[in-house]
Write a structure and sequence with these properties.
single chain, elongated, mainly alpha, 7 helices, two-stranded antiparallel sheet
């Protein structure tokens, strides 16, 4: 098996660690070192790289959008993207909140059960009591979340007595 010597990391690696340019005798550093050099360059020339990428995108807008559309239509990529997006949203955002949270929420229940009424739901909402401490909250169904909001805002104080009176008068 043919092995190549990397001038940057000073190691001898197999053919699989080299680009096709090296196999043709043009490149002198391995793929991991090439990626490292690329990252360093991008960090040092951040604005220049951003402008170049933006210009490329606008110049090849139709091709970029077509590629993105093909990627999003493919069922395997679409499902993977949906799962990753949901996981990220559950970890980093409160729905209806502006901006990203400073601290992450508690982990989403794997069994998708409401932590208050223990029913299984497709979507759970996160109810927290203090904006400064979002990790102190519960995952609950939409019904329990509504009740929590009513309790927090003291709306239910008079409603419960009014309901009891109305029920007694009608029965």
């Amino acid at each position: 098996m043919k092995r190549f010597y990397c001038r940057k990391c000073k190691s001898t690696l197999t053919k699989s660690n080299w680009s096709s340019a090296k196999r043709k005798g043009q490149d002198h550093i391995c793929n991991p070192c090439t990626r490292e050099v690329g990252r360093e360059y991008s960090k040092a020339h951040r604005e220049e790289c951003r402008v170049r990428a933006q210009e490329y995108h606008w110049k090849h807008r139709t091709e970029c959008l077509a590629k993105m559309k093909r990627y999003m239509i493919d069922p395997a990529h679409k499902e993977k993207n949906r799962v990753q997006t949901k996981a990220w949203q559950r970890k980093n955002h409160l729905h209806g909140f502006k901006g990203k949270l400073k601290e992450p929420k508690r982990d989403y229940p794997v069994d998708q059960k409401c932590e208050l009424c223990h029913t299984v739901r497709n979507r759970l909402h996160y109810h927290h009591w203090d904006d400064a401490k979002p990790w102190k909250g519960v995952w609950c169904c939409i019904w329990c979340h509504g009740i929590c909001e009513f309790i927090e805002r003291r709306i239910l104080d008079g409603v419960i007595e009014e309901y009891a009176k109305l029920k007694a008068s009608l029965l």
